[in-house]
Specification:
The chain is about 30% helix and about 30% strand. The chain has twelve helices and 22 strands. The strands form five sheets. Strands 10, 11, 14, 15, 16, 17, 18, 21 and 22 form a nine-stranded antiparallel β-sheet that branches. Helix 7 packs antiparallel against helix 8. About 50% of the residues are buried.
Length: about 425
């Protein structure tokens, strides 16, 4: 048993805004003395030594963790988790926070997660799975009610979901997903699902295989343009907590969704250790699960972690050791809003390599954060290096104040093709 006094070395796998928020959170832990990140970005470099190893290079990452005597690895991203990075690390005797491959399938296959929910009576939209495009078309022509949702089964960067208003759109969607393979192998199987209406809420949770502790709620804005217009993106901003996630909703989810999911995975011989992200739809018939993710959301992590009072390392270790029942998870009684500064043209075509000015403004300001998503160093300058460039986050005593603070802080930053949505968190006016 390692002595508790020993200062830990931690490796974070990933390179986005979520990983920057994780690095910031880990850096606050008194248990940690050195942080590495692979591959990292220019913002993460403030807290961690970045190593040029890709998130999918499992063998290289495990060798690096051994060489550097890493005590704990935190995997931020979905691809490596679904690909089985945790199994590779465990086989090498390395401690790692995240689900094994057989549990990450909860996110990796929409067909698996829908079947699981059906089997264990977890509330979700009615659906059918198809691996033959002809059968899918036949179903759409004979049984389907419109509007209807088509989902590529595998990982498609959060974008493999089509909402089709009529049969013609649905036929084109089947072609796009299953025949043209727009989302690659993710489209080998497709889920056709009833269209649900209501508000979306995201709830992240820590899980140790049997116990679950939910974090504070959040809500994401997926569309590129104001008024939820434009294309789906990885997320243009978030706020936390969601005013629509009431005590009543929480009680229902505790009873029928959260623990039920953890128990279902354990019953299937796929105990889940790590983070389950519940994407919920608050329908007229009560909350239903839209999707599961097997990691922190991005940009949800950027508003949830700054509000968490606990030491992230302590909670992650409890998940690994199966002692989460001893953790009292606590969040500040305030709110946070994240506005993503993107490159104009995202998610389609955009230029990168522009110098970013104003980052230092955040240094001495309490309750204001800038998390890097797509940035890199160019000599001693920091330049844009992606569609989503930065997540500007601010806290406030309530959502209104946090929102005003976040939008004020977006003005401190400047780069040539800076683009943002102007209505992140606008829904709170309706709450």
């Amino acid at each position: 048993m390692k002595q508790r006094s020993k200062q830990m070395k931690v490796l974070i796998v990933g390179s986005g805004g979520r990983e920057h928020a994780i690095a910031w959170s880990v850096a606050k832990s008194p248990k940690v003395d050195k942080i590495y990140c692979a591959p990292g970005n220019a913002g993460i470099a403030e807290y961690a030594e970045c190593a040029d190893i890709g998130a999918m290079e499992f063998e290289k990452l495990a060798a690096f963790a051994k060489e550097k005597e890493i005590d704990l690895t935190i995997v931020g991203m979905d691809d490596p988790l679904v690909g089985g990075i945790v199994d590779v690390f465990e086989a090498e005797g390395l401690r790692v926070f995240g689900p094994r491959k057989n549990a990450a399938i909860l996110e990796g296959s929409k067909a698996f997660s829908k079947d699981l929910m059906k089997k264990y009576d977890i509330p979700t939209a009615a659906y059918e799975n198809f691996d033959d495009p002809e059968k899918a078309l036949e179903y759409l022509r004979t049984e389907a009610k419109f509007p209807i949702v088509l989902k590529a089964d595998g990982l498609a960067l959060g974008k493999g979901v089509l909402i089709c208003q009529d049969l013609a759109e649905a036929e084109a969607g089947v072609k796009e997903i299953m025949e043209d393979k727009k989302f690659g192998n993710a489209g080998n199987t497709m889920v056709i699902e009833e269209f649900m209406t209501g508000r979306e809420v995201s709830v992240l949770s820590f899980v140790d295989g049997k116990t679950i502790r939910t974090m504070t709620s959040a809500q994401d804005h997926k569309r590129a343009k104001d008024g939820d217009q434009g294309l789906n993106t990885g997320g243009m901003g978030t706020f936390s907590p969601s005013p629509f996630y009431t005590k009543e909703v929480e009680d229902f989810c505790n009873k029928y969704i959260y623990q039920a999911t953890v128990d279902a995975m354990a019953a299937e011989g796929r105990p889940f250790k790590g983070i389950i992200f519940f994407g919920l739809m608050l329908t007229e018939d009560g909350p239903k699960v839209l999707e599961y993710n097997a990691r922190f959301g991005d940009p949800e992590a950027q508003v949830v972690l700054p509000r968490m009072k606990n030491d992230l390392i302590e909670v992650a270790e409890a998940c690994i050791d199966g002692t989460l029942d001893q953790i009292d998870l606590q969040f500040e009684d305030n709110a946070a809003v994240c506005v993503v500064l993107a490159s104009d043209g995202y998610p389609e075509k955009y230029d990168k390599g522009f110098e970013i000015k104003g980052l230092d403004t955040f240094k001495d300001k309490d309750g204001y954060y800038v998390f890097h998503a797509g940035t890199k160093f160019d000599g001693d300058k920091i330049v844009t290096n992606g569609g989503r460039v930065l997540g500007v986050v601010a806290k406030g005593e309530d959502l209104k104040a946090a929102r005003a603070n976040a939008y004020k802080a977006t003005e401190w930053i400047d780069f040539a093709n800076k683009y943002k949505r102007n209505d992140i968190g606008k829904a709170i006016d309706e709450a």
